[in-house]
Design goal:
The complex is a heterodimer.
Chain A (H helix, E strand, L loop, with lengths): L1 H62 L2 H5 L13 H8 L3 H30 L7 H13 L4 H10 L6 H5 L6 H12 L3 H9 L4 H12 L1 H17 L2 H6 L8 H14 L8 H43 L1
Helix pairs in contact in A: 1-14, 4-8, 4-11, 8-11, 8-14, 9-10, 11-14, 13-14
Chain B lengths: L1 H36 L3 H17 L5 E2 L10 E2 L3 H7 L2 H33 L4 H12 L6 H12 L4 H8 L14 H17 L1 H8 L3 H9 L4 H26 L5 H10 L5 H4 L2 H11 L3 H30 L5
Antiparallel strand pairs in B: 1-2
Helix pairs in contact in B: 3-15, 4-8, 4-9, 4-11, 4-14, 5-8, 6-12, 9-11, 11-15, 14-15
Classes of the chains: A mainly alpha, B mainly alpha.
């Protein structure tokens, strides 16, 4: 409010001083600017529509009848509304089992990811710890050069971690970029609180778990979201390491559906009806997988943006 | 002469004293701080096993690896695998495709995200601005599997885009099976997914501009457009330069592109869609040519590292901003 007032005052001043010279220009500009604003609103609306259209199409298709889908009649409103495919996805098949796996992996994976990232970032954020001169480059180097796909694959195989939960979680357990974000956050915390904790007889671990982590809620929340989103959407680790279907996360199941449908989309090999069912199963599964993210997204978006900004400030 | 040698001795003594003092100092430092260093045990062990062991595992690019055998290979084979893949047309095609896809995506994305940020910045009504931002960031959070599935649905022969083409009296196109369409699909879906998110750093830079500069420009009679050209753009130029240089530095890497290409490509479109990392996957994991595939991956990784280092150096020179 006060800002707007200040602006108004300033404009008055400006006009008062420069009316004779600039008045013509100002009137012309506001006219052109208004046209630009209208254009901008239209353009932004178009961008929003183009962004949301694929989502709306998927939802509409997932509720539509097979005949309408195959004829290409569906756009953003379901045609021939029915819940057949949803029912079959949710009752028959293993979809819920895959979903349960995803939730388990996301929850446990995120817990250990955040814990170990924070435990790594905390000492690294202390400028008085001399060995940081070694440890900080030690972790940063891995951002720019790594093992690559095959050596990682061989390592997992050699460690006999294939077909275990660890093969899914360990490759991305600690994200170096996230550690650096946490490190800069910890470095900005006031030291007095930690010192007070130590004077009160807390050990270093006590200080970390009882003081540092509780006052670091913003960054911890951001990290939880980053890691959780990563585990939620990861299918590639499952693809490389999990042969056992009962361990698949839903993202990998979805990948199988997408690939399977695309290879059976051979008009000669399959009947029209099975193709239609396959198409509907895809959109239903996609909607079911995306729903939790889209529902919580508007509320958590700002944490992601914060995290991005933190990184942006650094480099 | 004698003077000189005595100086030398003194210097050496000083060095010895320094070294022993350093060791004593370090011992004292460790004694005082060892508890906090114990925080690092598990994470550093993790980095050694899951980051550094695979990094050294790249040695099998120069050694013969036998499945189930030694992690670091059995015997030296020199540059055999490098010679092999450099002579392989499939590798050269994958390498060219990586560059083409990355470069065309950068060429389109870079100006669009900047313009999008500038246009967003012109929205004065906050709820509308928030809404546009929220909507445009959304696709960034959607799993690549869903994005790929969406693309396939939208582009399928019974999908809405083909329905539109048929309505216009055109032939339906099987986009996903045609190599000439792959780069377009790759770039367009990238813009759809990354336009909003890519503008965040620009918006942050714009938000950091001193408002007095705009006021001064207004006093000088600058129009809104002139303010953008003469205030906004010059002020965010360091950000633009940094992002551009670093993007160019990432040109040979296929990290970000891998998932999407892997989910969308098929043997019919390899001609334009196969990139180095998907090639590595097929050669290594699928066909079991571990050493060969590692050599390809290592080649790309090293090239990427060199290019990033150059880019980082140039960024430091140009804008004073750098990754390290």
């Amino acid at each position: 409010m006060s800002e707007a007032n200040a602006n108004a005052e300033l404009k008055l001043n400006v006009k008062g001083r420069e009316r004779k010279i600039k008045q013509g220009v100002k009137v012309k500009e506001s006219w052109q600017y208004r046209i630009f604003q209208v254009f901008n609103v239209i353009l932004m609306s178009l961008i929003c529509v183009a962004t949301l259209y694929p989502f709306l199409y998927l939802v509409a298709q997932s509720f539509s009848s097979e005949a309408a889908i195959i004829k290409g009649q569906v756009s953003i409103i379901p045609v021939g509304f029915n819940l057949t495919t949803y029912k079959s996805v949710l009752t028959k098949g293993d979809f819920l089992g895959y979903y349960k796996n995803t939730i388990l992996y996301a929850v446990f994976g995120t817990f250990f990811s955040v814990l170990f990232s924070a435990m790594l970032a905390y000492p690294l954020s202390k400028p008085n710890l001399r060995l940081n001169k070694f440890f900080v480059p030690f972790i940063i180097f891995t951002m720019y050069f790594g093992g690559g796909m095959i050596p990682n694959y061989i390592l997992m195989t050699t460690l006999k971690l294939r077909n275990t939960v660890f093969a899914f979680i360990l490759p991305g357990l600690i994200g170096t970029y996230y550690v650096l974000l946490m490190k800069s956050f910890f470095a900005s915390l006031p030291h007095e609180l930690e010192e007070a904790g130590e004077i009160d007889g807390l050990s270093k671990y006590g200080v970390f778990f009882r003081i540092v982590l509780p006052i670091s809620k913003p960054i911890v929340a951001t990290m939880v979201l980053f890691y959780m989103a990563g585990y939620w959407s990861n299918w590639f680790n499952a693809f490389l390491y999990l042969e056992d279907r009962s361990k698949w996360p839903v993202a990998y199941h979805l990948r199988q559906i997408i690939i399977g449908a695309s290879t059976s989309a051979d008009p000669g090999a399959a009947s029209q009806e099975t193709m239609q069912i396959a198409a509907n199963i895809k959109s239903c599964s996609m909607v079911l997988m995306a729903v939790p993210i889209i529902c919580v997204y508007p509320f958590i978006q700002k944490y992601f943006v914060q995290g991005m900004m933190l990184g942006g400030v650094k480099g | 002469m004698s003077n000189n040698s005595s100086e030398n001795v003194a210097e050496e003594n000083a060095k010895k004293v320094n070294a022993s003092a350093w060791i004593k100092d370090m011992a004292k430092h460790l004694k005082k701080n060892w508890v906090i260093y114990t925080f690092l045990i598990i994470p550093v062990a993790y980095y050694i096993v899951f980051r550094y062991v695979p990094m050294f595992g790249n040695i099998i690019a120069f050694r013969k690896y036998v499945a189930g055998g030694n992690l670091f290979g059995e015997q030296w084979s020199g540059f055999k695998y490098f010679k092999q893949f450099l002579g392989d047309p499939a590798f050269r095609r994958a390498f060219a495709n990586t560059l083409i896809l990355n470069f065309s995506y950068l060429l389109v994305r870079f100006p669009l995200t900047l313009i999008f940020a500038l246009l967003l910045n012109e929205i004065k009504w906050m709820p509308w601005k928030k809404f546009v931002q929220t909507v445009s960031y959304l696709p960034h959070f959607i799993s690549m599997v869903i994005v790929a599935g969406m693309i396939k649905e939208l582009l399928s022969t019974s999908g809405p885009i083909n329905a539109f083409l048929v309505n216009m009296g055109q032939q339906a196109i099987e986009f996903i099976a045609l190599p000439e369409w792959f780069p377009t699909i790759f770039v367009a879906s990238g813009i759809w997914q990354g336009l909003g998110w890519g503008s965040i750093l620009y918006l942050a830079a714009i938000a950091g501009i001193n408002p007095e500069l705009y006021e001064a420009a207004k006093v000088d009679g600058a129009t809104h457009f002139q303010q953008v050209i003469h205030v906004t753009i010059p002020c965010i130029l360091p950000t633009i330069a940094t992002l551009l240089i670093l993007d160019i530095g990432g040109m040979v890497g296929s990290g970000g592109a891998f998932e999407k290409v892997f989910l969308l490509y098929n043997p019919m479109t390899y001609e334009t869609s196969d990139i180095v990392s998907t090639y590595v996957y097929r050669m290594g994991v699928k066909s079991g040519n571990y050493s060969y595939a590692t050599a390809v991956g290592l080649f790309e990784g090293l090239l990427n590292l060199i290019l990033l280092t150059v880019a980082n150096f140039s960024s430091k020179k140009v804008s004073g901003e750098s990754l390290w």
